[in-house]
Amino acid sequence: MKSSIAYDENNHFPLENIPFGAFKTAQGSTHCCSRIGDKVIDLAVLFNKFDGPLFKTLTENVFDQPNLNKFAALGKDFRLEARETLQKMFAEGAPAVDAAALVDASEANLVIPVFIRDYTDFYSSKNHAYNVGVMFRGPENALQPNWVHIPVGYHGRASSIVVDGTPIVRPKGQTTTDGKTPEWGASKRLDFELEMGTVLSHGNEHGKPIKIDNARDHIFGFTMLNDWSSRDIQKWEYVPLGPFLAKNFASTISPWIVTPEALSPFKIALPAQDPGVLPYLQDKDLSSYDLTLDVSIKTPTMDQWHSLSKSNMKYLYYSVAQTIAHHSVTGCNMDTGDMLGSGTISGPEKSGYGSMLELCWGGKEVIALPNGEERKFLLDGDEVNMTASAKGNGFTIGFGNCSGKITPALDDSHFF
Amino acid sequence: MKSSIAYDENNHFPLENIPFGAFKTAQGSTHCCSRIGDKVIDLAVLFNKFDGPLFKTLTENVFDQPNLNKFAALGKDFRLEARETLQKMFAEGAPAVDAAALVDASEANLVIPVFIRDYTDFYSSKNHAYNVGVMFRGPENALQPNWVHIPVGYHGRASSIVVDGTPIVRPKGQTTTDGKTPEWGASKRLDFELEMGTVLSHGNEHGKPIKIDNARDHIFGFTMLNDWSSRDIQKWEYVPLGPFLAKNFASTISPWIVTPEALSPFKIALPAQDPGVLPYLQDKDLSSYDLTLDVSIKTPTMDQWHSLSKSNMKYLYYSVAQTIAHHSVTGCNMDTGDMLGSGTISGPEKSGYGSMLELCWGGKEVIALPNGEERKFLLDGDEVNMTASAKGNGFTIGFGNCSGKITPALDDSHFF
Q1: Rounded distance, CA B307 to CA B194, Å?
Q2: Least buried of A32, A371, A416, B41, by fewest C-beta within 10 Å?
Q3: Based on the domain organization, do A372 and A407 belong to the same domain?
Q4: Between chains, do B237 and A152 touch, taking CB under 8 Å as contact?
Q5: pLDDT tens-digit readout, A248-281
Q6: B19-65 per-position pLDDT tens digit
Q7: Residue A363 and residue B267: Cα distance in Å, rounded?
Q8: Are residues A148 and A74 in the same domain?
Q9: Is residue A143 part of a domain?
Q10: Which of A337, A266, A404, A392 is nearest to A13 (CA)?
Q11: Strand ranges across the sheet with B251-253
């Protein structure tokens, strides 16, 4: 595909991508948008040019909205038509598009693309679950007996999900040294988690599960997700009801939601599951995407980003469809904009571990940086960025950035 | 106080109460409402009669809304003014009120009163935490070491919170008999949890904690809460990330939110905490309410409700203010309508245990019903109701009902 907008083959946003997002216009309202090359496309301005048979039936500008939810809720056929319309509109040789609809990406104020009412985080990477299990319980009991039968997950905090670039305040809270006495202070083990998020286009009626064969139809698209974690707060609080404050201070997502259509050339089968799962989880299309994930760091004294880990979305044990079917099997109702995190995606080798907890092996090793600095966990001023990309024939599909900078904890006068 | 609306001293809704809710009008729109005696008061119809200094500044009918969030977000002073206005409007001898604003409670279609974006459940009753701990780990290790330092909590599912009277479909899912092999089927250990919910009027900026001294100012009011639980699904899934599907199929709340003002005559100090908590949790007003809680059952063969347990909101170890301060200490942002569950509130004696898990002691005992039936957990067709009430001098403050009937699990064709 060739576009009227110029970009090189490493650009994350060729005409083959057509991601969706939202941005604040110069006038201060929020519009839905897409991106081609280094141009953000204001879809609200172009709404009247969407002349396909489905869009022609709409009476409301679904892009002149504070987020993508209204558009996403229209479902797959509308999403496909929007994609095709944009690919035609910006094809090489197509008539020029209203210049008011094009904003330089460097100028665009991207905001959180969807209203996420409910956020659930899974634990679907076997490498990650195994690594954490070894650290806490040793190699013999690393994986809990339920792990190969259940896509283990838990409810996360939706309100504190922020978009790429939002500073992350180091949390304060309770930790312990001796396992029984609480200590007050700033988290000393602040970590990232390299994840992918799945955003739903629509949900299910309360009480009615989503069958696994239909689960993929509920996907609007995918985001990068950094599920920031405080390991020392987590360790003290998480028994018996799971992580709470250790996770709820912030999670960062990429501004762009990339659709299943854009990722389809990179679909890859997942290894057969052994032991087999119960029928409601049996996925005839057990698959993920061959999507390279990178997490990089830039400390205050570094000029360049340094890659800490390279993983891949193919290192999941459970498919996204399995997590959707599992989530709704009790009749739990899902809705447009709900986000399901994959859990930290770690590769099989240390070079692909998706958290500092694993990279420093629970604090036993140091992570050497190219400028001579060392890290175990994140220090104030450190910036973390995550990217996800796949190379096609002459093009790259990506998500942009998913970054955040650690700012110092507030002083105690803010707390008591 | 005497009202122009007649009611007896056991009615939950005297002029001293003035709870808030929402209902669907005969015309099909949703209005905010209150209740006095057996009359539901349509506040949207009466909005123009709210002539206090604060309400006079409003340009929008905050009661002509799908839920209470807009009104709640105005904060305590508006809530107090609304309360006083209604108490004057319906005082004995006051001019007659537009009859269109009064709906018989038996006719009113009450809906969920607030949009709850985020729901968190705590574990604040020591009796309950101890009982569950004894069943799982024995009396020596019943309470985890963190329990007396941390108001333990976890994120719940907001989307599946339903209002009084909504049928509850028995969930299906994975359970295990041997601790390692999954079994498919309907939950055999379906339970209730007797809780109170706290609904926030407003939250905090992301990154900025709510100090405990200010925490009570964030409370809009309280609801009854039945956090339905599947004990067999829970047992298999909950290690290591906590309860997930065991809870997310449904939680029921009362249609009425009762304000701190209505409950203030029943405020009661909580026992001093030993050991003491960290400064951010030190509550100068460590208190709860002397509110009698009842959970009753009616099986398909029973004509009358039978009380299974009588507990009290005073059987909390942590104050609601402590749970708010704890939740936000990492900077997690809360918002209008967020609900914090207390966790199951169990009294010190068996007659006050707040779940069937405790009443049947993990399945070891049977719960005898007056008609000769026995239960350990809930069977299809069983109805459960919860009430909360406090007796003042010649009046009663209550929440109405918080009920649900168990309907059979769907057949397997809905799942695979």
Answers
A1: 13
A2: A371
A3: yes
A4: yes
A5: 999 999 999 999 999 999 999 999 999 999 999 9
A6: 999 999 999 999 999 999 999 999 999 999 999 999 999 999 999 99
A7: 47
A8: no
A9: yes
A10: A392
A11: B153-155, B119-122, B339-341, B194-200, B219-226, B251-253, B161-163
User: What is the predicted pLDDT for the residue at B36?
Assistant: 98
A218 assigned to active site: no
Nearest to B171 among A212, A330, A333 (CB): A330
Same domain? For A58 and A141 the reply is: no
Whether A329 contacts chain B with CB within 8 A: yes
Distance CA B373, CA B364 (A): 16
Rounded Cα gap, residues B384 and B363, in angstroms: 19
Contacts of B317 (CB under 8 A, 6+ apart): B124, B125, B126, B148, B270, B273
Residue B212 contacts A where some CB pair is shorter than 8 Å: yes
ipTM confidence score: 0.97
User: Which residues fall within 8 angstroms of residue B407, CB to CB, at 6 or more apart?
Assistant: B167, B168, B169, B170, B380, B381
Q: Suggest the residue from B111, B124, B137, B146 to mutate for an interface test with chain A (most A CBs closer than 10 A).
A: B146
Same domain, A53 and A156: no
Tokens of A364: 């036993």
* pLDDT tens-digit map of B87-136: 999 999 999 999 999 999 999 999 999 999 999 999 999 999 999 999 98
Report which of A129, A74, A120 is spatially closest to residue A334, judged by C-alpha positions.
Answer: A120
- My answer on whether B127 and B226 are in the same domain is yes
Query: Is residue B11 assigned to a domain?
Result: no
Question: Which of B273, B268, B374, B352 is closest to B307 using CA atoms?
Answer: B352
Give chain B positions within 8 Å (CB) of A123: 241
- Of B102, B114, B90, whose CA–CA distance to B42 is shortest? B102
* Six-digit token string for A30: 């929020």
CATH number of the domain at A259, please: 3.90.850.10
B159 lies in which domain range? 119-414
Residue with tokens 């949890």: B193
Q: Which helix (H) or strand (E) holds B234?
A: helix B231-237
- Provide DSSP, A133-151: HHHHH-GGG-S-TTTTTS-
CA–CA distance, A119 with B155 (Å, rounded to integer): 10
Distance separating alpha carbons of residues A273 and A275, to the nearest angstrom: 6
Contacts of B212 in chain A (CB under 8 A): 416
Name the residue in chain A with its Cα closest to that of B210.
Answer: A415
| CATH number of the domain to which B70 belongs | 2.30.30.230
The first and second tokens of residue A193, run together, are: 């988690």
User: What is the sign, positive or negative, of the torsion defined by CA atoms of B314, B316, B319, B320?
Assistant: negative
B145 and B166 share a domain? yes
Looking at the structure, tell me whether residues B89 and B126 fall in a common domain.
Answer: no
Is residue A163 within 8 Å of residue A108, measured between CB atoms?
no
Chain A, window 285-314: residues with a beta carbon less than 8 angstroms from a chain B beta carbon: none
Question: For residue B330, what is the nearest residue in chain A, using CA coordinates?
Answer: A171
Q: Which percentage of chain B shows pLDDT scores above 70?
A: 100
